[in-house]
Amino acid sequence: MGVGPSYSTNDYELVIKSSKELEYFLEEEFHAKGKGLHEKISSVQSDLPDSLCKRIRFLATIRNKLIHERGFDAIPDRSAFIASFESSKQELVTIIKARNSNSSCVIC
User: What's the pTM value of the predicted model, to 2 decimals?
Assistant: First the structure.
């Protein structure tokens, strides 16, 4: 198995940075609107596969629980969280590249 990106050992930092990364793609590339990741994904869910929306909602739910719920102090399955983040990010990048390559821009 190859060496992947380095992730914080702090679960709070991991969920916040992961959420910010996904929010960036959704806002910049899909013009998502809303206060949090759940609202942003809802605003663009018709443009994305259901499986991707479900993965991003899973990440948002873990983030929200970690931030807001007393006694929920760690990601239950870090490797599953990281795998969901990586696959979500990669799928967003793939969709963005496909959209950009199908652009009808003549001057680009």
Answer: 0.85
